[in-house]
Amino acid sequence: MSELFLLDTSIISEFLPGRSPIPPKVSTWLGARSPRFHLSTITITEIERGIALLAAEGGTRRSGTISTWLDDILDEYGDRIIDFDARAARSAGQISAAATAKGTHPGFADVAIAATASIHDLIILTRNLKHFIPLGVPCTDPFKAEAR
Predict the structure, then answer these.
(1) Which of 13, 69, 114, 130 pairs as cysteine with 137 (C-beta 3.0–4.6 A)?
(2) Which has the closest alpha carbon to 80: 136, 36, 140, 132?
(3) For residues 39 and 7, what is the distance between their CA atoms, to the nearest angstrom?
(4) What is the pLDDT of residues 35-70, one digit of tens each?
């Protein structure tokens, strides 16, 4: 079976309108795997929070652009959007407790994304390996040469 992936917010945000282009090697790597990408409802929450904060700070044009972009992402991912459900919540509790026991204090969003990936046998694609490695879940940064 081919590897399946869960995009962390740090990866999907690389595609925000107005961001610098993604390096060609990374773009090729991502493009070859994109049909196997999934998105967590937690990531959607994080992006929507950013949109709301931007609008509240007066960035209505930018927040509108990002909101439209997010609508397009949601349409594109459709059935590849994974809900944070009761099964993921239980896994998140276990992951959080194990991390805390090791002296790591991860944020809820990272724990929820890690739990979602764990129960669905997905590899997390992230720019923030330091957030996920301590949680004991498979993860990689496609922007690092060793991942490609």
Answers:
(1) 114
(2) 36
(3) 6
(4) 999 999 999 999 999 999 999 999 899 999 999 999
| CB count in 10 Å sphere of residue 111 | 25
Torsion (CA) 114, 45, 107, 100 in degrees, nearest 10? -50
In whole angstroms, give the CA distance from residue 3 to residue 5.
7
Distance CA 103, CA 38 (A): 30
pLDDT > 70? residue 30: yes
* Spatial contact of 142 and 26, defined as CB atoms under 8 Å apart: yes
Answer whether residue 148 shows pLDDT above 60. no
Q: Is 94 helix (H, G, I), strand (E, B) or coil?
A: helix
Q: In order of start, what are the domains of the chain with their CATH numbers?
A: 5-141 (3.40.50.1010)
Write out the E strands in the chain: 5-7, 37-40, 81-82, 123-125, 139-140
pTM: 0.93
Q: Look at the block and give the residue holding tokens 């309108």.
A: 17
